[in-house]
Amino acid sequence: MKVCEKILAVLVAGAGVAEAAAPMNDDFASRQVLSGAAVNVTATNVEATMEGGENDLGGLYGATVWYSWTAPAAGWVRVETTGSEIDTVLRVTTGTAADSLVEIGYNDDDGEDGEVTSSLTFSAVAGQVYNLAVGGMGGWTGAISLRIASGDGALPPVVLSSVTLRPSVVDVTEAAAEVTVGMTVAAGTYSGDGVARWSFTAANGREIRGEYESWDTGRPVSEGTMTVPKSFMPGEWTLTVELSAGGFRPVRFGGSESGAPYVFPVGGVPVLTVRNSGGYDAAPPVLRSIAVGPLTSGVTHEVSVESGAVTLPVRVELTDDFSGVDRVEVGIEADIGGLYSMVSSVLVRTAGTEVAGVWTGSISVSSEVTTGAYRVFVIAEDKDGRRSYYNGERGGELIPGGELALRVLNGSGIYALWRGSWSSGDDVARQIGGVSDDPDGDGVNNLLCMAFDLNPFGWWNPGSYLPEVTMTGAGGERRLRIRYARRKDERGTLGLSYVPQFGAGGGMWEDASAQAVVTDLGYGWEEVVVTDTVTAGVAGRRFGRVKVTYAE
To answer: What residue ranges define each of the domains in the chain, with the CATH number in brackets?
Structure first.
């Protein structure tokens, strides 16, 4: 077994270091006032907190700082955090109290070239005060850039001036219904034609998608139709419209899990109301039984792909009493420290009916699958679009009989998976090299880049996942504190070891793992906070570091 280790040390003297304070605009009540048609500010959300009303995006962001900005004129406004060192989430609201704000819109990832900073473009009302909240994805902290542009500088490539639905209320008790979507698309910075795609989304995440339709900024209205299936789920459905053409990336108006970068103009957008008094298929397909090669519930089987691919036969039994099963996918998956790997195959029905039948096929585990622990998953979708997900973890339903576990052997571990996540081909993979290499020459080698989720080529190094060593406490009780993020190792497959250490210098370090307070951050990561047991007043000086070891 090859063991590599690297120590990431941040040295902080125990005396004369002040405890970090929260930003002045940490709270809604003390938000920083911005003015003017164009604004450019830099800030930090280090030590920022959350307060009432800030967390109604389901924990998407935290450590927020607040601003207020009054629109000097009516028209389009673009707010963005491009240039920030962290993965940001941006939210724009109106209102005068943090727990009763009216949301204009929010955005997590801008989406351009993989950017994890945020942007939001909306139509402002002259004289209206807008509240801007900027936080870190999952609560991460660091340097933030905030820019506001208005007028021509914020004009979208194309403008969705209005949307109509005919009809806006449909009843699908007896038969499917057709809905016509009419759009007025005006020239922004682009004049010409393109294509539009729209979808309706319910509060529970269900979605109806329409086909692509053409639009032209020279025509008054572009139209297309979509079908709401018979016996579809009743409720109110909100619209998302995506406009695209050859000269610019798609412009999406409306909401999504990450929030749309562009908000519908003032006046909003119609809501589609679906009625169904005859009953509907509320439940997705049900998995009755599953067999995958030699796998047995409760037993982990090993498969070696070092000499070539291995094929495992698959047989599943499913039922869907209302509309019938439309599609079945079975595969193996692993969540290895936040790095996701999956092999899957679509099955075909070989016995029974769509309402109650048997689907068979095979999974081919290729020689490119990395060493690790995997589990079987099943995705089944019925003819009304309801989907079930079985795997017992990651929020899925339990596999009947218990989890089916598989360990793949391929002579490589998480490092190969991490390197592959940054590779567009063999040439790039060779440039990344081994765990001790430093492709971008920034002094942080590949092992530390893997351990703390940094870019090995230096295109984007947020620094927020790196260990932070700060001082906490007051007077004679001041102590060093280390805070960092590490990949979770729930299944014993990582080979990564993180050891926080404190010392007085001279090469003597003490393992502080026993003092660690661990918080699950989601997405395969957890936060670790460790406070030194020795006070600065006793030690005179203290140092902190994190030792990272990788066993391949």
So the answer is: 3-16+467-551 (2.60.40), 31-154 (2.60.120.510), 158-275 (2.60.40.1930), 286-409 (2.60.40.2550), 414-452 (no CATH)
